[in-house]
Structures are given as structure tokens and as C-alpha cells.
């Protein structure tokens, strides 16, 4: 069972009205919203492919924008942690090294996901018509679904523990919720893209 008293005590350290905290929440929520809206718009209109001259160039451009936005998100996340108090009793070596280990595992999932998917596979290439020949099932996809998202979440969780930051833990929960919502929208849409691909192959 969840220790409600401990949760109340934990989040009693967090000022959710702090400007930095609000900016961090908005940056976390904005990123998946942005790339889903832009990618679906591209899938429907092919406007970016026309502007950049090819689907690959357009995908690389969107990927670069997403990377910049992720850097902004991480900066906002870190600044929000710094502006709020640490949790008493957590500022110990075991907490720091536990967080470091969790971040290392998250980094492993993120990097291995990127290597397995490639740039276009990572950054929504299928929405640009750049489809993979078959579903990737190698590590880390053999361990869990959406390892890029959950690896990123683990990095933020580890970072929060390393800083003994209740604000960081709450923001990590926002990251997890944002990615969960993104998966609910992206999963069925991506499956439909590949379903249409299979229909096209069979009709030939």
C-alpha cells in the first residue's frame, strides 16, 4: 500500500506554483504534443517533405528540432530541481549511486534504441513515409516496449535521486504520464501506417 503520509511529506517540499517548476511541466508536456501534431500533419499533407525537397531531409529537420526541445526540457527540469529544497535524509552516497545506476540503465536503453532504429526510425520517419522493412525485436525492444521513452524517464528518475529532489521526482512522474499518453496516440496510428503498407504490398 502507498504510504500517504510519506507522499504528503515528500511533496510538501515542492512548490508547484514556482515559475521554474511550471515552466518545466509545460516543457515536458509540450514536447510529445509538438512532435505528434507535426508528424501527423506531415503524414496527412506531406507539407514538410515538399518544403525540404525530400522526406528524409524533412525527417532530419524535425529530429533536430526535437533534440533541441529535449535539451530545453532537460535544462528546465534541472533548473526547477535546483530552485527547490532537497529531501532531508536523502542526501547520502547510497541515494546518489542508486540514482546514478538508474540513469545509466536509462541511458543504455536510449542509446541502444537509437542504434536499433536509426535516426529516421527514432524520429518518426514512418510518418514521413520512411518505413522499416520489419518490426525491430532486438535489444532493448526484446526487453520492453517503447524503451526510448522509458529509458528517458529512468534518466530523469536517476537524476532526481542524485539530487535528492522531491521536485525532480514529481517532474519525473509528469514525464512518465506524458509518455504514456504519447504511446496511446502513437501506437495505434503507427500500426495503421504499417497495416496500410501491407495492404499495398498484397494488392500488387
UniProtKB/TrEMBL annotation:
Single Gene Ontology MF annotation: phosphatidyl-N-methylethanolamine N-methyltransferase activity
Classification via Gene3D superfamilies: 1.20.120.1630
Zinc in keyword set: no
Subcellular localization: Endoplasmic reticulum membrane
Alphabetically ordered keywords of this record: Endoplasmic reticulum, Lipid biosynthesis, Lipid metabolism, Membrane, Methyltransferase, Mitochondrion, Phospholipid biosynthesis, Phospholipid metabolism, S-adenosyl-L-methionine, Transferase, Transmembrane, Transmembrane helix
Membrane-related topology note: Multi-pass membrane protein
Swiss-Prot/TrEMBL catalytic activity: 1-hexadecanoyl-2-(4Z,7Z,10Z,13Z,16Z,19Z-docosahexaenoyl)-sn-glycero-3-phosphoethanolamine + S-adenosyl-L-methionine = 1-hexadecanoyl-2-(4Z,7Z,10Z,13Z,16Z,19Z-docosahexaenoyl)-sn-glycero-3-phospho-N-methylethanolamine + S-adenosyl-L-homocysteine + H(+); 1,2-di-(9Z-octadecenoyl)-sn-glycero-3-phospho-N,N-dimethylethanolamine + S-adenosyl-L-methionine = 1,2-di-(9Z-octadecenoyl)-sn-glycero-3-phosphocholine + S-adenosyl-L-homocysteine + H(+); 1-hexadecanoyl-2-(4Z,7Z,10Z,13Z,16Z,19Z-docosahexaenoyl)-sn-glycero-3-phospho-N-methylethanolamine + S-adenosyl-L-methionine = 1-hexadecanoyl-2-(4Z,7Z,10Z,13Z,16Z,19Z-docosahexaenoyl)-sn-glycero-3-phospho-N,N-dimethylethanolamine + S-adenosyl-L-homocysteine + H(+); 1,2-di-(9Z,12Z,15Z-octadecatrienoyl)-sn-glycero-3-phospho-N-methylethanolamine + S-adenosyl-L-methionine = 1,2-di-(9Z,12Z,15Z-octadecatrienoyl)-sn-glycero-3-phospho-N,N-dimethylethanolamine + S-adenosyl-L-homocysteine + H(+)
Keyword Nucleotide-binding assigned: no
Protein name as it appears in the record: Phosphatidylethanolamine N-methyltransferase
Lineage, broadest ranks: Eukaryota, Metazoa, Chordata, Craniata, Vertebrata
Gene: Pemt
Amino acid at each position: 500500500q502507498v504510504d500517504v503520509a510519506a507522499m504528503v511529506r515528500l511533496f510538501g517540499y515542492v512548490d508547484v506554483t514556482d515559475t521554474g517548476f511550471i515552466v518545466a511541466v509545460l516543457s515536458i508536456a509540450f514536447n510529445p504534443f509538438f512532435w505528434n501534431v507535426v508528424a501527423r500533419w506531415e503524414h496527412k499533407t506531406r507539407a514538410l517533405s515538399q518544403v525540404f525537397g525530400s522526406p528524409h531531409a524533412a525527417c532530419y529537420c524535425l529530429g533536430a528540432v526535437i533534440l533541441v526541445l529535449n535539451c530545453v526540457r532537460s535544462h528546465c527540469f534541472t533548473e526547477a530541481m535546483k530552485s527547490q529544497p532537497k529531501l532531508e535524509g536523502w542526501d547520502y552516497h547510497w541515494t546518489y549511486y542508486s540514482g546514478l545506476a538508474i540513469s545509466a540503465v536509462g541511458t543504455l536503453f536510449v542509446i541502444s534504441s537509437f542504434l536499433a532504429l536509426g535516426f529516421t526510425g527514432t524520429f518518426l520517419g514512418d510518418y514521413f513515409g520512411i518505413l522499416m522493412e520489419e518490426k525491430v525485436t532486438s535489444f532493448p525492444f526484446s526487453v520492453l516496449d517503447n524503451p526510448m521513452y522509458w529509458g528517458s524517464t529512468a534518466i530523469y528518475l536517476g537524476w532526481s535521486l542524485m539530487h535528492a529532489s522531491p521536485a525532480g521526482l514529481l517532474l519525473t512522474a509528469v514525464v512518465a504520464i506524458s509518455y504514456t499518453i504519447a504511446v496511446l496516440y502513437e501506437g495505434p496510428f503507427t500500426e495503421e501506417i504499417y497495416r496500410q503498407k501491407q495492404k499495398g504490398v498484397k494488392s500488387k
